[in-house]
Design a protein that fits this description.
seven-stranded antiparallel beta sheet, Jelly Rolls, 2 helices, mainly beta, 485 residues
């Protein structure tokens, strides 16, 4: 189920036992879900608890890269009969070197590719030292001079390139402060251009800058750049002062990071014995082929993870990885399972622990070239950063329905919006219900004095009957639970 769980030792506000909650339910968590409202219809918002179970939190080390010849996975041992979401730390995006400047023999060769608008004053130059290059053996020196042109630039012409959703990343070595002189980075389609300031925070040191194509400002908003056919890339002197005259900045290792892409995730049951590196293959186990909450999607053998455009490191909350809920086949507590990350169209970096200590003892991170070849442990004591959540047995102590805009405020013919909150068992049958007409944007159904019990795998379902004349366009359901650690 969608949502971001927050688990921890939050003190429960009143006596647990006196309110009907067993004494062992000593922790609390919160989960939420939302949906875009279908106007004039009955809209369902489903919510199951997400209680953190198996996990390894250290995610500061790059373990390896998922590509067309590498599967990365994590072995873990389940303690419950279901999984309701997983979190992983990934960095997405195919990265290509746009220009590392190492292949230019001399200044003349560089200037034939990076063409200056004012060659007499602003021709770029190849340098090999003072400072040392950021990467490789050479870098480009770029002038701040503005003597005959208030905004001189250097520009490279390329074969039409699809830059939609992508980003350019490069290293810059400024010799003056950003306030004394700066550049902007621009792209164009041969007719129209857009640009963004290159923001630096220090002087006389290399620093990496990322320019997202979608964030660049159009020179002419009425005639936007065709991002699918970029043919011009360059740097322009955007701001200058007397301090910038005759000064230079180094540019090195320009990369292009493609946007979007996806990654496939699979779940395998490996049985009661932990897999052995160098012996066990992925397909020695049984693939779980009914992933996904059956109330929300058609069960599938793999879950596709849409990746964030323009790359970047992210904690991905993958709520579609649901197993053992709603008749999709229970997991076996005590068995070892593994998740695999499989290449689709984008190379993806996976993060985890550095191996300095064994932070997760019931499994390990691994790689494999395919599902039939024995797995290889990534390294001693090294695991992927992962969080496994379950739809655990809980008691609902608070529940809120939040609506974007006022509900029923513009109702006609005496028709008002209304909502129902249903507590449902794992098999989908209704256990209890709250129904109310609503006229406000936030409705709270506090159940603290009479907590509502939800069995393992059960859910809360809100049915919001929308009045097509009101202004609501999104509905949220948020619940607070007590659970047993």
């Amino acid at each position: 189920m969608a949502g971001t769980p927050i688990s921890g030792n939050i003190p429960i506000r009143q006596s647990i036992v006196s309110n009907g909650i067993p004494a062992e339910f000593t922790k609390q968590t919160v989960s939420q879900n939302q949906r875009i409202v279908s106007k004039g219809d009955v809209n369902k918002v489903l919510l199951r608890s997400q209680v953190l179970k198996e996990h390894m939190d250290d995610g500061n080390t790059i373990l390896d890269t998922v590509d067309s010849s590498t599967i990365i996975g994590q072995i873990f041992k389940v303690s419950k009969a279901n999984i309701n979401g997983i979190a992983l730390k990934l960095a997405s995006g195919n990265v290509e070197v746009f220009d590392d400047f190492n292949d230019y023999a001399d200044d003349t060769a560089l200037q034939a590719v990076w063409v200056a608008s004012d060659p007499a004053n602003n021709d770029p130059e190849i340098e090999t030292a003072d400072p040392d290059p950021y990467e490789g053996a050479k870098y480009m020196n770029m002038s701040y001079n503005w003597e005959s042109d208030p905004n001189p630039y250097i520009e490279r012409t390329i074969t039409a390139k699809d830059c939609r959703g992508g980003a350019f990343r490069f290293a810059i070595y400024p010799r003056i402060t950003w306030g004394e002189g700066r550049f902007n980075f621009f792209v164009g389609d041969g007719t129209n251009y857009k640009r963004l300031d290159v923001v630096t925070t220090a002087v006389d040191e290399w620093q990496q800058v990322t320019i997202q194509v979608d964030a660049m400002v159009e020179d002419d908003a009425d005639n936007p750049v065709d991002d699918e056919n970029i043919t011009k890339v360059g740097f322009m002197v955007d701001n200058w002062s007397s301090a910038s005259e005759n000064e230079w900045a180094g540019i090195d290792y320009i990369e292009f990071i493609s946007g979007g892409g996806s990654l496939d995730l699979k779940l395998w049951d490996m049985g009661a014995s932990i897999p052995v590196a160098g012996v066990t293959a992925i397909d020695d186990g049984t693939q779980y082929t009914t992933l996904g909450d059956p109330d929300l999607m058609t069960p599938a053998s793999e879950i596709t993870i849409p990746l964030v455009g323009a790359g970047g490191t992210r904690r991905y909350q993958i709520d579609d990885l649901v197993a053992g809920i709603g008749g999709s086949g229970a997991l076996t507590p005590g068995n070892y399972y593994l998740i695999t990350l499989n290449h689709v169209d984008t190379d993806v970096v996976v993060y985890g622990s550095d191996g300095s200590s064994d932070l997760y003892t019931d499994g390990f991170g691994f790689t494999a070239p395919d599902e039939a070849t024995a797995i290889t442990a990534i390294g001693a004591n090294q695991d992927c950063m992962f969080h496994i959540y379950t739809a655990d047995e809980t008691y609902v102590v608070d529940c809120k329905a939040i609506f974007k805009a006022s509900t029923g405020a513009t109702a006609v013919n005496g028709i008002n919006s209304f909502y129902e909150i249903l507590i449902m068992r794992a098999d989908g049958t209704v256990e209890s219900m709250v129904t109310s007409k609503i006229q406000a944007g936030v409705m709270s159904a506090s159940t603290w004095l009479r907590p509502l019990h939800i069995e393992e795998g059960g859910k809360i379902e809100m049915r919001f009957s929308d009045d097509y004349t009101d202004d609501v366009y999104k509905a949220y359901l948020i619940a607070e639970y007590a659970y047993q650690p």
